[in-house]
Amino acid sequence: MTILMIILAVVGGAFLSIQAAINGQLGSKVGVFRCAFLTFSIGALVTALLIFFFEPKHALTLLDVPKWQLLGALCGVPYIVIMVLAVQRIGAAVATVAVIFGQLAMSMLIDNFGWLGNDAIHFSTTRLGAVVCLGIALFFIYSSNKSKEAPAAETATTRE
């Protein structure tokens, strides 16, 4: 079951990259906030249908849970807006790896301290190695973007 959850998480990550690339293009044509609105509107509609047809009954409703847990819904808005802006400027790969770096760093803090009602999973040298590797990956992916931009800038300068 663990392997299946890891595979599903990887597939979810792939969909986020596809979404970022599409939204970057859409946002440049219709505007960042219109793009974000479309994303959340379609997402809300699809989720409502999934709830209606597939969600089992639960003892609590959204009105019964601790109110701070409802704040998680607000975290998606900055993500979508930032990605729509970032993908247009730095590309889908750099933006996605940067987001994953931020996710990894924050999730390790959440795990280590058991924040937000989660079980504590203490920081280790292996986890530190993962953060360092991802930081290095971000550097190399970003650097490869810069090396491709330099010849293009030189070509534009020589034409003038």
Automatic annotation (TrEMBL):
<feature type="transmembrane region" description="Helical">
    <location>
        <begin position="30"/>
        <end position="54"/>
    </location>
</feature>
<dbReference type="InterPro" id="IPR006750">
    <property type="entry name" value="YdcZ"/>
</dbReference>
<keyword id="KW-1133">Transmembrane helix</keyword>
<keyword id="KW-0472">Membrane</keyword>
<protein>
    <submittedName>
        <fullName>DMT family transporter</fullName>
    </submittedName>
</protein>
<keyword id="KW-0812">Transmembrane</keyword>
<dbReference type="Pfam" id="PF04657">
    <property type="entry name" value="DMT_YdcZ"/>
</dbReference>
<feature type="transmembrane region" description="Helical">
    <location>
        <begin position="75"/>
        <end position="101"/>
    </location>
</feature>
<feature type="transmembrane region" description="Helical">
    <location>
        <begin position="121"/>
        <end position="142"/>
    </location>
</feature>
